[in-house]
Design brief:
Elements lengths: L1 H26 L8 H8 L3 H15 L4 H12 L5 H11 L1 H5 L5 H10 L2 H12 L9 H5 L3 H16 L5 H8 L4
Helix pairs in contact: 2-3, 3-4, 3-11, 4-5, 5-10, 7-8, 10-11
Length: 178
C-alpha cells in the first residue's frame, strides 16, 4: 500500500513539473528579431529624415535573413544610384523573400523589366496584389517608387511574419506615408 501511495505522489509530482514547464515555455515572451526601442527612436525623427534614411537604417534595427541583411548593408555603403542593383541582387539571391510579397514574382519581375517606366508601379501593385499585404492602399502604393516599394515590402512582410509591433508604422514612414 505504501509503495502505491509513493508511486502516485511521484507521478503527480512529475506531472506537475511537466505541466509547469509547459506553462512557463508557452508564456515566455517570444524575443523580437527587431530592437523595438530602436524602432521607437527612429519614429521620433521627422518624416523627411525617416523617409530619406530609414531604408538604409532598417538593417541596423532588425536581424533579417541573409539576403535582406546584405541588401541593407549594401544600401548603407552604396550611392543612391545603385539602389536598384542592390535590391534586385537581393531578390535574385533569394527570390522566396519576394515571393512572400508577390506570388509569381519571377514572371512579374520580367514584365516590370520590359515595361515603360510609368507602367512599372501599376504592374507591381496590381499583379502582386500588394494591397493584401496591409501596408498601404492601392492609391498610396501607386504613388511610390517601384524599387523602394519592393525593398520595403519584403522587409515589412518579414517583420509582420515575425510579429514586430511597429513594423507597419515604420515601413509606412520609410515610404513617406502617414
Amino acid at each position: 500500500m505504501r509503495m502505491k501511495s509513493l508511486f502516485t505522489s511521484r507521478l503527480q509530482f512529475f506531472f506537475c513539473v511537466v505541466l509547469s514547464l509547459t506553462v512557463v515555455l508557452a508564456c515566455k515572451e517570444k524575443e523580437s528579431p527587431c530592437n523595438e526601442k530602436d524602432i521607437e527612436a527612429i519614429l521620433k525623427f521627422s518624416d523627411d529624415y525617416v523617409q530619406k534614411y530609414g531604408l538604409i537604417g532598417l538593417g541596423e534595427v532588425c536581424r533579417f535573413p541573409k539576403p535582406l541583411d546584405s541588401m541593407f548593408k549594401e544600401l548603407q555603403s552604396s550611392p543612391p544610384e545603385y539602389t536598384t542593383l542592390v535590391v534586385y541582387k537581393a531578390i535574385g539571391d533569394d527570390i522566396s523573400l519576394f515571393e512572400q510579397v508577390c506570388p509569381g514574382a519571377a514572371k512579374i519581375l520580367a514584365r516590370i523589366a520590359e515595361a515603360a517606366p510609368e507602367e512599372k508601379i501599376n504592374i507591381l501593385v496590381d499583379s502582386c496584389g500588394l494591397e493584401k499585404l496591409g501596408l498601404a492602399t492601392r492609391d498610396e502604393l501607386l504613388r511610390l517608387n517601384v524599387v523602394r516599394l519592393q525593398a520595403v515590402a519584403m522587409a515589412y512582410a518579414w517583420m509582420k511574419a515575425n510579429e514586430v509591433k511597429l513594423a507597419r508604422l515604420l515601413c509606412r514612414r520609410i515610404l513617406g506615408l502617414r
